[in-house]
Amino acid sequence: MSTIRAGSPAAFWLALPAGLWMVLAVVLPVLLIVWVSLWGGQGVSPNNPITFDNYARFLANESYRWLILDTIGQAAMIMAITGVLGYCIAYFLTVKVTSPGWRIALFLAFVIPFWTSTLIRAIAFVPFLGVNGLLNQLLISLGLIERPIQAFLYSRLGISMAQVSLYTLLASGPVVYMLSSIPLALREAAMTLKAPPIIVFWRIILPLTLPGIVIGQVLVFLNVLADFITVTTVGGNKLAFLGNLILLFYEGSQIRSTAVVSVLLMILMLVGVTVALRVVDIRKLGS
Amino acid sequence: MHWKTRSRLTGWVLGTVTIGFLLFQWAPMFTMFTLSFAGETGGTTFPMNGVSLHWYRNLWEADLFDDFKPPMLRSFLLALACSATTVVLSVCAAQAMRGRFRGNGLYFYLLLLGLMAPGILVGFGFAILTRLLGIEGSWNTTAYVVHVSWALPFGFLTMLAVFNRFDPKLEEAALTLGATRVIAFRRITWPIILPGVIGTALFGFSLSYDEYARTLFTAGSDGTLPLAVMAQLDRQLTPELYAIGSVTTAMSLIVIALCSIGFWLRARALRGRPA
Amino acid sequence: MAAPPVIRQLDLELRNIRKRYGSFTAVDDVSLKVEPGQFVCLLGPSGCGKTTTLRCVAGLEEPDQGGILIGGREVTGDPPWKRDIAMMFQDFALFPHMSVARQVGFGLEMLKKPKAEIAKRVAEVLASFEITQLAERRPGQLSGGQKQRVALARAMITEPRILLLDEPIGALDYSLRETVMLELKSLQRRTGISFIWVTHDQNEAFSLGDLVVVMNHAKIEQQGPPQDILSRPRTPFVAGFIQGNNVFHGKAGRAQGGVLEVETPLGAFGVPLLDLATPAPGSPLSFSVRAERLIERPDESVPNRIALRCITVEYFGAFRRHVLEGAGGAVVKYDQFGALPQSIREGEQITLGWAAENGVLHRATPA
């Protein structure tokens, strides 16, 4: 018994507005993209014939094929870095920090930037990474380098640094959640069964946090694949990934090509999510 | 090595990694903040050539291309509308999920889809939709619809989590005391879920206020603040951009701080003041 | 040739253990000796330090002072995985991602036993605990009783010197508890492994323990065989904690012939001194009398008598308990076997008494 009866019409009517909204604003547009990507002919009209020519033309271009691989490679790299980094941070914050005050302070320092604008954070990397930027000055004053490193800004290195900074929280958050839901008694039980800490980690902690790792990796994967803001701001239009290509085609009013790249991006994402779902059941995370 | 030494060593290594990352995460924002106070002749990088409020003054007085005031107002209004809509829709949707209507599993994934679908695809797809329907895109119509679809999944998940922790026996108690379902919801449920609702509203506001990818495709000719910032970045990077960045970041931080203090005060009030 | 004398090592020895958390003292000067194969129950109210003591033995907490010896070996600074113990946790702490068989074999895996041997031992242990049919299940698919068996099998498979049990049946349904208690007791007898069982339930402690250790406020109040503690509580806390005692507080009077006169608000009573030194006259002290040892309407030969008024009569297990009130609102309990006819009605005035030898004088509490 609660303020809503199970299976009542009221529940259905309450659910309807949000559902319709999502269908209209997300599902329908995404389906439209798929449809448009199959349009033959010239103009923007629903009467165009259906064809796979757009895909054939796009995939025939070798540099585009490379771009797809490059985007996947970039995502894989960022996933690896944020995965390790995020796990270390999550483990430190939930397990190693014992003082509640420090834990809250560090958590806030970790999470707060997430609530500020990604665009602004990406722009902030420009003065940080530049030739006279903070990072170069720091390295010079520490005596680690003699002349500023040009390659920080407008390079893949710079993009990767910005992406790691932006997305580590995504990799770490679900792990924090899973780690903090492991009862202390489980570790202790393993220890009284003669398992030293390293074994406790590999046999108990890691398997129990695996769903968190996978969710985090999915989030990073999706975000890096679709990221075009960091690439534009920190990469200075010198580099492009699939996301930038979508924008480029769209600004050139090449609707069909935009749709083709979008669908390819979608397929990559679907494959990624499907693989992840094979490893863990996302629904269990909520329970 | 002694096991305690090893454990402590792991702690130090992980701590160094964490602190290092936090510094790395905050350093760019700190740089931007510092440079926003650069002198009049200062550029977008060090040296600053003095300390001044010149760029903030510029920001305030500008009235042409680089006038950020109208887009800022638009962003603010849009974020307010998005926040309000998100609260209503996600409270309804989460309450509906408690009523386990037919197809609620599928419904859950439908809402989650908005979280997974990248902004660039949603924005582009919605742009096609409006074009086919012959609708002119604008920040307060098309962009509004898309913004809500972005904030809604976050609000929905927040409210689901809030209802998960909510004890339905409280409602049962109210119902056995003669309250109708509507009264029980308004008098018992609503006050208890209120912190979660405020959280949802915050999510709705800040997600909309900072949204870029979806807006880019759907806002039409009058852009929001992120669009204006990006346009200015394309033209020329000036410390003025750092100033606007610092202002918005500071605003986000102030809102977060105010809400945290609010929650803390509420929690203290509920606990009752210790003698 | 004479065989060398066999020195029987104690299974466990605690030497003046002390543990503080900030300004809170959790365990204060606790010493304990556990003979091989002994069943020890740590009994006390929640927060009395019994669980912390157990965790110190397990190595999950490190005492600030004092020493711990397991099997005669000093282990005070050793981590849990280097101690010859196993532990059963209150809510069993089963690993949610491991099957029952995997879980039970975990301890042997950690000892780096060959795979074949582990499989064989696991099969044996599962069979002996009658859970073979559960081997492939996950903890989420088990009932409370089944979880308890799995946790026990997991702990016992390595044949530790000591098994530590932290409220091991507290999470079970009430109806299951008695059966499980009997099984555990016979398991302990069969294997000869020392059990240290932490509980707040005196029925558990008294029916299971060879040695019962009563703790309160981080200290051991009294330790001994169950019948000693039941018949001769040494402190007012122990007397009050054990059901069915009337505790009287008063001042020492004159001692004569091994009987001490005690002045209480209810009157003066004679209490045998037993092995205690004669306290200084006027010093505060206490004694107890078991509720079933009281006599109704005693004759003149009974020296200790109180005039009371019966407030309520209620059934307390197999007993009929009378709650009576004396001078100044002091409450006295009188228990009678429930099957006997009721002889006192509510509201009735009555005199109760007891034979002098049934009074139990407590150790003087340090002021």
TrEMBL record, chain A:
Cellular localization per UniProt: Cell membrane
Top-level taxonomic group: Bacteria
Database matches in Gene3D superfamilies: MetI-like
Membrane topology (UniProt): Multi-pass membrane protein
Any one Gene Ontology cellular component term annotated for this protein: plasma membrane
Predominant localisation class: membrane
Pfam families, per the entry: BPD_transp_1
Transmembrane feature ranges: 12-38, 72-93, 105-129, 164-186, 198-222, 228-250, 257-280
UniProt KW Cell membrane keyword: yes
Keywords tagged on the record: Cell membrane, Membrane, Transmembrane, Transmembrane helix, Transport
CDD domains per record: TM_PBP2
InterPro entries: MetI-like, MetI-like_sf
A Gene Ontology BP annotation from the UniProt entry: transmembrane transport
Domain ABC transmembrane type-1 residue range list: 68-276
Family: Belongs to the binding-protein-dependent transport system permease family. CysTW subfamily.
Matches recorded under PANTHER family: INNER MEMBRANE ABC TRANSPORTER PERMEASE PROTEIN YDCU-RELATED, INNER MEMBRANE ABC TRANSPORTER PERMEASE PROTEIN YDCU-RELATED-RELATED
Protein name: Putative spermidine/putrescine transport system permease protein
The organism's taxonomic lineage, starting at the top: Bacteria, Pseudomonadati, Pseudomonadota, Alphaproteobacteria, Acetobacterales
TrEMBL record, chain B:
Protein topology in the membrane: Multi-pass membrane protein
Pfam families associated with the record: BPD_transp_1
Superkingdom, natural source: Bacteria
GO cellular component terms, A-Z: plasma membrane
Record field: transmembrane: 12-38, 75-94, 106-129, 141-163, 184-207, 241-265
Domain ABC transmembrane type-1: 72-259
Main localisation: membrane
Record has RNA-binding as a keyword: no
GO biological process: transmembrane transport
SUPFAM superfamilies: MetI-like
Record's subcellular location: Cell membrane
UniProt keyword annotation of Iron present: no
Keywords: Cell membrane, Membrane, Transmembrane, Transmembrane helix, Transport
Family: Belongs to the binding-protein-dependent transport system permease family. CysTW subfamily.
Protein name: Putative spermidine/putrescine transport system permease protein
TrEMBL record, chain C:
PROSITE patterns: ABC_TRANSPORTER_1, ABC_TRANSPORTER_2
Amino-acid biosynthesis keyword on record: no
Keyword Nucleotide-binding applies: yes
GO molecular function, one term: ATP binding
Biological processes annotated in GO: putrescine transport
Start and end residues of each ABC transporter domain: 12-242
InterPro entries tied to this protein: AAA+_ATPase (IPR003593), ABC_SmlMolc_Importer (IPR050093), ABC_transporter-like_ATP-bd (IPR003439), ABC_transporter-like_CS (IPR017871), Mo/tungstate-bd_C_term_dom (IPR008995), P-loop_NTPase (IPR027417), Transp-assoc_OB_typ2 (IPR013611)
Protein name from the UniProt record: Spermidine/putrescine transport system ATP-binding protein
Recorded superkingdom: Bacteria
GO cellular component: ATP-binding cassette (ABC) transporter complex
Keywords: ATP-binding, Nucleotide-binding, Transport
